[in-house]
Amino acid sequence: MAVWSNVAMASAVLVALAGCGGGEGEGSKEAESDPVAATSSATPSRTPQADVSSRSGEEWEEEQAAKLPKVTDVKVTETAEGDRVTFTFNAPAPRYLDSYEKELNGAEGKPITIEGSKFLRVAFIGVHPESRFTSPTPNERVLEVRYLMNFEGEMSAGIGIVAPDGAADPAYDISTEGTHVVIDIKE
Q1: Please, is 158 exposed, middle or buried when counting C-beta atoms within 10 Å of its C-beta (0-12, 13-18, 19+)?
Q2: pTM beyond 0.70, yes or no
Q3: Quick check: 42 pLDDT over 90?
Q4: What is the pLDDT of residue 16?
Q5: DSSP-assigned letters across all residues of 43-79
Q6: Any residues with CB less than 8 A from the CB of 55 and at least 6 apart, and which?
């Protein structure tokens, strides 16, 4: 009789613990899908998983980086409302931060000189660590678009814009369209 009371007590504990997980925890799913797990000994079962021990940390990082968007092209064009800079990626466009800066800096905070009198920095977040681009052909107003740096998954680009001395920073809009980040600089 003592054996049955121990089994009943163990079953009651397992049922109580399964209920504590909020219904979606690992333990409750395992007990639902594997009746043996609910009645087996305290020795944990081994769930099949990918063998990560055979990969080095560097291989894992390369595998993860391969999933990140990488810039493939940058173009400067004119539109009826002003000028457009388009960044194209090989995957859906990443998030970004943007701001006008008095001075643009690259790696280790070193100043980078680019053509123009107003400087717009755009930092693309969560991009491939080797994302780089060649400066596109400028036009009369967008004098330069330059790669600044790539640090911890954030690639920064600087856009040098002509504005008359003392003029306010030109208005601009940024949008994402599929694999593109489009910056429209207003006249």
Answers
A1: buried
A2: no
A3: no
A4: 44
A5: SPPPPP---GGGS-HHHHHHHHHTTS--EEEEEEEE-
A6: 63
What are 107's two structure tokens?
């790696």
- For residue 35, what is the enclosing H or E element? helix 35-39
* 33 DSSP assignment: H
Pairwise CA distance, residues 128 & 125, whole Å: 9
| Cα 33 to Cα 79: distance, rounded to the nearest angstrom | 59
> Going by C-beta distance under 8 Å and a sequence separation of 6 or more, which residues neighbour residue 92?
69, 176, 178, 179
Extract the tokens encoding 20. 């504590």
143 versus 24: the higher-pLDDT residue is 143
3-state secondary structure 1-16: CHHHHHHHHHHHHHHH
Helix (H, G, I), strand (E, B) or coil at 27: helix
Q: What are phi and psi of 154, to 5 degrees?
A: -125, 115
Return the residue matching tokens 């009789």. 1
Beta bridge partners of 144: 160
